[in-house]
């Protein structure tokens, strides 16, 4: 799916296999879900579970 190993955009940690991740992206306005993987590679921001939960805690 990814041409290079995906890493967390916050801490830079490589994403492990089967690790739950969060992806922040804009929903493509003119493409269908079929192309969402290609869109993800260009526009997606991957956040690991640890960073995502820490981010949420800070905002509370
Ligand atoms: Zn992280």
TrEMBL record:
It comes from the Bacteria. This is Fe3+ hydroxamate ABC transporter substrate-binding protein. It comes from Saccharococcus thermophilus.
């Amino acid at each position: 799916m990814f041409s290079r190993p995906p890493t967390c955009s916050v801490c830079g940690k490589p994403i492990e296999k089967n690790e739950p991740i969060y992806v922040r992206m804009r929903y493509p306005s003119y493409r269908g879900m079929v192309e969402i993987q290609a869109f993800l590679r260009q526009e997606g921001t991957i956040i690991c579970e640890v960073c995502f939960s820490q981010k949420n805690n800070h905002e509370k």
